[in-house]
Write a structure and sequence with these properties.
The complex is a heterodimer of chains A (250) and B (229). Chain A has 250 residues and is of the alpha/beta class. Chain A has 10 helices and 10 strands. In chain A, helix 4 runs parallel beside helix 6 and helix 6 runs parallel beside helix 7. The model of chain A has no long low-confidence stretch (mean pLDDT 92). Classes of the chains: A alpha/beta (250), B mainly alpha (229).
């Protein structure tokens, strides 16, 4: 177990990312070991989402290295596919396919990417719908579900591909307050099962209870990274202190 | 003037002899035109200028000129060239039916290409990001995500375009074809009762338009099952 934990599954080394003139990521370094839970926070526009997008190549980084499960992200399509198959991703806006039923949302990638038969794909789908506690919604369309249920479907959809790492991009930011807990509960369960996770979130209660590492980003830089106890009790940087005081003050 | 109801009742069935041709023009031009539109739309959204520019020019020309002028150019204009008359194309181009089909199809192709482009570009980018993150390839994303959603978005405009094409088929009567309008003109020449005759023609067109709109409404319902809460 200790040995397994020492394997870095995600490595970002000196990553820069530009959108035209604007530099979205500046010299970002991050190392995530197997089983680790990393919570990333920071003001909007600080590059948190962009960093996640660079990890599964939704965005191409301009400089530096991104290595996932030993596979370097470069222009090789084979590498990109291999990396994506190791990573599940959950978005702020759920992004469920509106024209497909819940169960079909889950079956699509196993069928197309893993070449599973319809029966196999349905079995996988139902397994994970069970895990997010909404098997009874399988035959509905996404729009018929509440936001919290939709986000749990999105989590299940990512899990169907059996990823080694899960990326969460502000998974509760678009939810009504009463639905946040049901999504966080699923994420906590996932964390307890040993899933490697990177979560961009401002849910500091969640961060305190599951995070192994807190990362604070501002203006495209990793300003501070520390274990939660230190991060909350003794933030080093002034920017971190200011940010924490803003989000924890109410 | 006297309004002759009896003449309307007499004329509508006669008009019906033109329905066959009108429907042939409509269906054939829709099928050929829509196929053309799919190709044009794909070229139009391509990032390769060699593909997108011909599509842009084609759409611009056919949307920017009256269909009547296009029909005359194809039917009367091309026939002036000996080279055209000697080529294999003459088989089609000497026949007013095929000239009409060519003109209508090219028009449908241009208009529907823009409708499809709107549909394709209206698909939420977040859905495509999600599909990418799940590992779907570019073509898989296009087939399984973009296409079904774009069809739903494009359907109402596509229905309008089909009704509009149906009405435009009346232009075929200007190049000797006996579609509904062509038949109406012939009867009018015999009876000198333009009001009753063209009113009859209008009734027949309305009838066809109702069928098209009904069909599109059915398709919209089918494609928007997921929109019903």
């Amino acid at each position: 177990m200790i040995e397994k934990q020492s394997i870095p599954i995600i490595q970002l080394q000196k990553v820069d990312k530009f959108f035209g003139e604007f530099q979205a990521l500046k010299n970002v370094n991050l190392e995530v070991r197997q089983g680790q839970k990393v919570v990333v926070c920071g003001p909007s526009g600080s590059g948190k989402s962009t960093m996640l997008h660079c990890i599964n190549r939704l965005e191409k980084h301009d400089r530096g290295r991104v290595v996932v499960a030993g596979i370097e992200l470069n222009d090789s399509l084979k590498n990109i596919d291999a990396v994506r198959s190791e990573i599940g991703m959950v978005f702020q806006q759920f992004n469920l396919f509106p024209h497909l039923k819940v169960v079909e949302n889950l079956m699509l990638a196993p069928k197309l990417v893993r070449k599973a038969t319809k029966t196999e794909a349905r079995k996988i789908a139902m397994t994970y719908l069970d895990r997010v506690h909404i098997p009874e919604q399988a035959e509905k369309y996404p729009i018929q579900l509440s936001g919290g249920q939709q986000q749990r479907v999105a989590i299940a959809r990512a899990l169907c591909m059996n990823p080694q790492v899960m990326l969460f991009d502000e998974p509760t930011s678009a939810l009504d307050p009463e639905m946040i807990a049901e999504v966080l509960d699923v994420m906590v369960e996932l964390a307890k099962e040993g899933m490697t996770m990177i979560c961009v979130t401002h849910e500091m209660g969640f961060a305190r209870s599951v995070a192994d590492l807190m990362v604070f980003m501002d203006e495209g830089e990793v300003v501070e990274s520390a274990v939660p106890d230190d991060f909350f009790a003794h933030p080093e940087s002034e920017r971190t202190k200011l940010f924490l005081s803003q989000i924890l003050s109410h | 003037m006297e309004f002759d109801f009896a003449l309307i009742f007499e004329s509508v069935p006669k008009m019906a002899t033109g329905i066959g041709l009108t429907l042939q023009l409509l269906v054939l031009a829709s099928i050929i035109g829509t196929t053309l539109a799919v190709c044009t739309a794909l070229m139009r959204i391509s990032k390769i200028p060699l593909l997108s520019w011909p599509a842009i020019v084609y759409i611009y020309i056919f949307r920017g000129t009256p269909m009547l002028v296009q029909i005359f150019l194809i039917y009367y204009g091309l026939a002036q060239f000996q080279a055209v008359r000697d080529s294999f194309m003459w088989i089609a181009l000497r026949d007013p039916f095929w000239c009409a089909i060519i003109a209508f199809s090219l028009n449908v192709g241009a208009y529907t290409a823009e409708i499809l482009r709107g549909g394709i570009q209206g698909v939420d980018a977040g859905l495509l990001r999600a599909a990418t993150a799940l590992g779907l390839s570019k073509s898989q994303r296009f087939i399984h995500i973009t296409t079904p959603i774009a069809i739903r978005l494009a359907l109402p405009a596509f229905g309008n375009e089909t009704v509009s094409l149906m009405k435009s088929t009346a232009l075929a009567s200007t190049i000797t074809m006996f579609d509904i309008t062509g038949v109406a003109r012939t009867i009018m020449a015999q009876t000198f009762a333009p009001y009753e005759i063209f009113l009859s023609a209008a009734i027949v067109y309305l009838f066809i338009a109702w069928f098209i709109q009904f069909g599109v409404a059915l398709a919209e319902r089918r494609y928007s099952r997921h929109m019903q809460r």
